[in-house]
Amino acid sequence: MTATTPADLWPEVRPEAARRLLLAAVESFARRGYHATTTRDIATAAGMSPAALYVHYPSKAALLSEISRTGHQRTLALVEGAAAEATDPVRRMRRLVEDFTAWHARAHTVGRIVQYELRALPPEDFAVVAELRRRTEETVRALIAEGVAAGVFEVDDVRTTARAVLSLGIDVARWYNERTAEPPEELGRRYADLVLRMLGTRPVA
Amino acid sequence: MTATTPADLWPEVRPEAARRLLLAAVESFARRGYHATTTRDIATAAGMSPAALYVHYPSKAALLSEISRTGHQRTLALVEGAAAEATDPVRRMRRLVEDFTAWHARAHTVGRIVQYELRALPPEDFAVVAELRRRTEETVRALIAEGVAAGVFEVDDVRTTARAVLSLGIDVARWYNERTAEPPEELGRRYADLVLRMLGTRPVA
């Protein structure tokens, strides 16, 4: 079960039937895996006929693409928003890790699909997602480099460190369980502490 | 394609046909996902008949269980081996992270299956794997706690930090690509540097 509602994840999707299909697809992919899920499974989970599904999405792949694209857009928006705040690099990195980690905890069911079914995307949709991922990584690298230049971070290898920062947050979707783990916001704060240590953070001058 | 050979991963498995079936299962699960793979797919990939497969493994689930159990045993052995070395906690943690990270880079195809198909395991096999995972996490927690007691680590939350250490290494299996990333051993050294920072390492007295 996802801990997020379709309204949280796809507030802009209309009509309601399309939104219901996205949620049904998420639950079906999470239960059976993408390859073993049929459009009939998804339609049934949404309380609709296969024909009614095709009114909104031409294929199972179109549903996966929509889930993956919107998930990547959402996390890129979090990362760019944190990186653009009018504060110092340490506070911006703290916000970035808090928000990115909490998102992957709250939306862990969607996060797993978004991360693990990349290779199932049609090539043109994969290209869009790859560009969103590239921008996300580039934003984190630029923020680390800015902190190094300002003398508040001390980092040996910006590329590997940026990948580690994102990897920690992404992997939350794999292991997070709302019954046994700390709440998403608390986990975000703890992970931000760990990441700022990884970055060799010094007091802001 | 896996970057490890069946001989590396299952040196103890005899006869050769059984080992070939394990490799074929890894490649088939990686390509199609576990649920969409049939025993016929696996037999064909191994150059065998379905009947010949059943001589060695009673089911697709039995192959997944063998892959998952041996993968978890291998990583637990690495972790316990590093934690038991006759050196200080800092050096032992460095070795642990280097070996754990390099394993997930080298065996990333197997690592993905081991991590992402846990819920497809039959309950009794899942219980075995869950126990191996519990011991792995407990070993890392104990080593961190030992370093804190010795005054060489400074950690706010041992449980969350131990999970982050393992999470960083496990997620390598998701993103690692031998064509674009640093070699496994180099990545292991860089990750060990990052983890020792996360642990607030101080010079060993």
TrEMBL record, chains A, B:
The DNA-binding region ranges are: 38-57
The alphabetized UniProt keywords are:
DNA-binding
The Gene Ontology terms for molecular function here are: DNA-binding transcription factor activity; transcription cis-regulatory region binding
Q: What is this protein called?
A: TetR/AcrR family transcriptional regulator
The record's annotation in InterPro entries points to: Homeodomain-like_sf, HTH-type_TetR-like_transc_reg, HTH_TetR, KstR2_TetR_C, Tet_transcr_reg_TetR-rel_C_sf
Q: Does the keyword Signal apply?
A: no
Gene3D superfamilies in the cross-refs: Tetracycline Repressor, domain 2
Pfam family of this protein, just one? TetR_N
**Top-level taxon of the source organism:** Bacteria
Which SUPFAM superfamilies does this one have? Homeodomain-like, Tetracyclin repressor-like, C-terminal domain
Give yes or no: UniProt keyword ATP-binding. no
Location of the HTH tetR-type domain: 15-75
What lineage is this protein's organism placed in? Bacteria, Bacillati, Actinomycetota, Actinomycetes, Kitasatosporales
